[in-house]
Amino acid sequence: MPISLSTQTHFFPLTMGSLLPILDLNASPQSAPNSTLATSTISLKVPKIEPKPEPYDDPAPQPPFDPSPSSDIFPNPQTTPLPHQTSIVAAAPDHVYSEFHRISELFHTAFAKGIQNCDGGGDEDGVVLDPESGAIVPVEDNNQQQQLAEVVQRKKYPQRSNELVRVTDLSDEDHRYFREVVRKTRMLYDSIRILSVAEEDKKNPGQGKRTRGDLRAASVLRDRGLWLNRDKRIVGSIPGVYVGDLFFFRMELCVVGIHGQVQAGIDYLPGSQSSNREPIATSIIVSGGYEDDEDAGDIIIYTGHGGQDKFNRQCAHQKLEGGNLALERSMHYGIEVRVIRGRKIHGAVSSKVYVYDGLYRILETWLDVGKSGFGVYKFKLLRIEGQPEMGSSILKFAESLRSRPLSVRPRGYLSLDLSQQREKIPVLLFNDIDADQDPLYYEYLRTPAFPTHVYHQSANGTGCECVNGCNENCFCAMKNGGEFPYDQNGFLLRGKPVVFECGTFCRCPPQCRNRVSQHGLRNRLEVFRSRETGWGVRSLDLIHAGAFICEYTGVILTREQAQIFSMDGDSLIYPHRFSDKWAEWGDLSQIYPDYARPTYPAIPPLDFAMDVSKMRNVACYMSQSTTPNVMVQFVLYDHNNLMFPHLMLFAMENIPPLRELSLDYGVAVADEWTGKLAICN
């Protein structure tokens, strides 16, 4: 079991698939390099140059971040390990790890305190800090270096495993389990990141300083031992990570364990840890950082690292060492590598998005003369067949769909706007499977139809008086527990029993940061026909974790009305049955045992149903899932009746374009009002 189960102690134990040791390099008589590349060198004196890692999320040097959490966001952090963070091997000798305890002797050498910089950078001795020591961001002045030294001395993290394994024969139950582990870890990461940035903006308003919430979130999770896949170094697929998954930050790749280097484009087991001193590559990032790269999708000509100055110009010959040698050795032993592509993106929380595109084999490598006239090592990689479509290809396809849908898919569109201009952004209707046109027969309802008495009871409602924009002390912020529910980007900070947005009775302008969900759709959604789920919903845009998606609408019925409608067989939705996934968003109790969620006023039971049999919107076609990527958050803005909130939908994770959106409608139980089942779709 390659993922640290200490991250989610409430999960049930599973019978794992097989963990196979990759190599016994000592056992192979041909373990020594037999390629001419292994001994080829270019004896040319070159000036000392800067190392050229893969481009980072933020090119500007950043000061070392303080890994100790803020008391405002993360109250009473514990510095001692949690009881469940002890070694699983020690706690359970018969665990599946014990089967591979003997393999650890193959790679027993620990990380050196200093490693040779293969590009000639570092100090005068060519030595740089161990990347596992905590020095994960560059520093410039002596004061910063002293602060970093204090951080490194204060924090002692366990080293990455030097045991290479491949995970095989996972059952469907195992796949669901690991997907949930990854999903919850990523949700924690995004929650902490968003909260960190919001807290910094609150302390230093209007300073324009960019807060590195990604570094802060990674540090907090690392402090609590919640980084995944560090107890085994996995070759091949990472359990719980799907082809097409998107990541906005390099640090999140490290947290999940799909790529363990903060800046370097090649992740590998150093030769100092292997029994015969040969490195093995496990993953690479392809993002066009080298002018000699060629990317044709299934085939990649990947340029090795090294030989570039701080201006990204090739100024020296590359050497067959470090990550370059690791790729050559992986080719020699037939070991596949994970490929993550980095793509520039606009209008997102970062300047680049990273997409996991699956497994590739290294077919050949050679020394060539690059465009700048210097020797560069090139590696030809071929994508292994039988994998899902590449996420980077889907990103390109979705981009073309957004601008010219009929040119890209001339057949299958039943409507280019199912909402009939009721939404600000058209809702597409697509079916290339059968002749079903069912969604066309319903009237599109942009907002729910509440009973008139809901508004009558709120006729004398009160709102904030913030004419020039709301602040933390305004009336609506107080109703939300003394804080705004959203950050400056409109992302939900914490899930609440109900969110109070500024609305009808407020004097603040329409662009107020506390008016998010009431403005309607932000993304281009598409209702589509699926062979697995019937009708489903997907987005042509990339949706950020914590972002608003749309509202769930229908005709609101009282208890008495619902009894009558259900007798006629109409489709009713019961809001109180939606799972409370909102409680997981922004919940830090998994990190700190004594973390106390902010207290909010209790709301009465939701004593109403929603009829979607004749009038509905795009949300009504979202499929059911026990591990959804969308959650329901109750919101009030146009009335103050707590018994009839709006059902607003927010993303629980980064949702790639064209990936189906799903909700947890709750367990299907007998309706306590009528004794019948509540059925959607």
Descriptive labels:
12 helices, 2 domains, alpha+beta, Beta-clip-like, PUA domain-like, eight-stranded mixed sheet, disordered C terminus, 681 residues, disordered N terminus
What report would you give on this structure?
With about 675 residues, the protein is α+β, with helices and mostly antiparallel strands. The protein is about 15% helix and about 20% strand. The strands form 8 sheets. Strands 6, 7, 8, 9, 10, 11, 12 and 13 form an 8-stranded mixed sheet that branches. Strands 14-15-18-19 form a 4-stranded mixed sheet, with no helix packed on it. The protein has a 4-stranded mixed sheet with strand order 17-26-27-20. A hairpin with a 7-residue loop joins strand 11 (about 335-345) and strand 12 (about 350-370). Helix 4 (about 170-205) crosses helix 5 and helix 5 packs parallel to helix 6 (about 250-255).
Write the layout of secondary structure elements.
Elements: E1 18-21, H1 36-39, H2 88-91, E2 114-116, E3 127-129, H3 142-154, E4 164-168, H4 172-203, H5 213-223, E5 233-234, E6 246-247, H6 250-256, E7 266-269, E8 280-286, E9 294-295, E10 299-303, H7 322-333, E11 337-344, E12 352-369, E13 375-383, H8 391-403, H9 405-408, E14 413-415, E15 428-430, E16 443-444, H10 452-456, H11 475-479, E17 499-500, E18 525-530, E19 534-539, E20 548-552, E21 555-558, H12 559-567, E22 572-573, E23 608-611, E24 615-616, E25 623-624, E26 630-636, E27 646-651, E28 662-663
Parallel strand pairs: 4-5, 8-11, 15-18, 16-24, 17-26, 25-28
Antiparallel strand pairs: 1-4, 2-3, 6-12, 7-8, 9-10, 10-13, 11-12, 12-13, 14-15, 18-19, 20-27, 21-23, 22-23, 26-27
Helix pairs in contact: 4-5, 5-6
